[in-house]
Amino acid sequence: CFMSLSSPFSGLQVVAAWASVPFPALPGCSLADTLCAYQQDVPWKLLSSWREQKVNCCFAQSVVLRGIGKESSSSQHPAQQPQSALHSCGSTEQVLQHYLHSLFPGALSTAHVLQQPCSTLPPYPQFFSPLLTREGFLQDRPPSHPSAAVESVPVLAALQSSPVLQGLLRSLHRDLQKLNVRRWFSFFSAGVEQDNFQEALEELRTLSQCYEAGLGADESEDEADSD
């Protein structure tokens, strides 16, 4: 899933959507405790059907976390030595902001934390793991007596401009090239000309090149060969 928007970076007009539903928070643990377990990779997944890819860098991102209260910013006693830089932050929003800056140094990052979780009451489908509590927090093992349905879950959502978008846009470009638009009479009856369609395809390919930074040589060669 990706969308177009205006951007302060020249040529960067698209973001990819990522999410974690539910966000993998443990009951009684702080946000710093949870994020310390994800120092090498982010705890959210790309919402596109395109192949999974680890994000090593990004240009800009906006992240919103719901369902984590202010009291979850730190679980340690004030007199204790901070376990990590994340534990030294004074609020959940600062914890999330510090985490984003540590994983993606130099990127433009904004972080927002809302205490209200996402409701999962009926008719929301109950497809959750038995490890979840009614409030959507993870447990180490399933309860001996299953509780009621999950009523709410903490959720993290992110919009990110990163090199992952090069592969997504080039894949879309390849799929559109395979279409024989001359057979779609309704397509051109709406006022679209063949030349305009080809021009839009070329613009899509050019746009994908704006996200080339951060890709390894092997990745670039694989994409070029597939074209």
UniProtKB/TrEMBL annotation:
List this protein's GO terms for biological process.
Answer: mitochondrion organization
Instruction: Name the GO cellular-component terms.
Output: mitochondrion
Q: Which domain of life is it from?
A: Eukaryota
Q: Which InterPro entries does the record cross-reference, listed alphabetically?
A: DML1/Misato
Tell me the PANTHER family matching this sequence.
MITOCHONDRIAL DISTRIBUTION REGULATOR MISATO (PTHR13391), PROTEIN MISATO HOMOLOG 1 (PTHR13391:SF0)
Q: What is this protein called?
A: MSTO1 protein
Native source organism of the sequence = Ramphastos sulfuratus
Please name the taxonomic classification of the source: Eukaryota, Metazoa, Chordata, Craniata, Vertebrata
